[in-house]
Amino acid sequence: MVYSKQVMDHFSNPRNVGEVENADGVGEVGNAKCGDIMKMSIKVENGVIEDVKFKTFGCGAAIATSSIATEMIRGKSIADALKLTNKAVVEALEGLPPAKIHCSVLAEQAIKAAISDYYTRQGIDPTPIVGEIGECDACHE
Asked: Is 136 a catalytic residue?
């Protein structure tokens, strides 16, 4: 597989690795069967994601998508973070091989899962805002 310079950069030098202390929301997605598990934690101030970190167990593409996704939502409002699509993640990484597209889906789902947890902790039903967080189709093949 050939990876872009962006993928290699985010794999070799991942940004925002770890866990946010006293996180306002934590989301974990993935499946040991497909080998990729992503956990994202967020700190929210006045509706803005002030801090975001990730821990990913998986391939280089999974680490790269997690890294760039955190960069793409840091400093953004929750509403803007929820608009982040896996397609935008792939574009920011200058492409992914077809077999690795599911990694970008997991990155999108991890963000939604963390935001969903944030709303749940606020006593707000996240489903009307965040939507259903489905399983990654690739994890079931």
From this structure: no
